[in-house]
Amino acid sequence: MSNAPTTEPCDDCGEPTTDALSRTVRLSVDRANIDTQRLCPDCFADWIRRYQDRLGSGTDESDGSSEIIVD
Questions:
Q1: Which end of the chain is more exposed for a tag (fewer CB within 10 A), N or C?
Q2: Domain extents in the chain
C-alpha cells in the first residue's frame, strides 16, 4: 500500500486535484445517492456561490423555519 496521495481530475474543470485539496459534493434524496462530484477548491467555491444564488444565503427574515432538511 502506497502513502503517496492520489490525484484524480476535478469533475468540473478536469484539472488534477490531490485528495487533500479535493471536495466531494453529494446529492441525496431520501437517502438515495443521486449525484457525487469531486471538485477542486476553485470549482467548489463556484459551486457554493451557485448554491447560495439559487437557494439563498440563509439570511431569510422569516420565523426561522425551513423546508430544507439536512440529514
A1: N
A2: 7-55
Taking the C-alpha atoms of residue 47 and residue 53, their distance in angstroms, rounded to an integer, is: 10
Q: What is the three-class DSSP state of 25?
A: strand
The CA distance from 43 to 51, in Å, is 12
What is the per-residue pLDDT across 26-54, written as a single tens digit (0 to 9) for each? 989 998 999 999 999 999 999 999 989 98
Q: For residue 40, give the nearest of 62, 8, 69 by alpha carbon.
A: 8
**Length of the chain (residues):** 71
What is the DSSP pairing of strand 32-39 with strand 23-29? antiparallel
Burial level of 21, CB count in 10 A (0-12/13-18/19+)?
middle
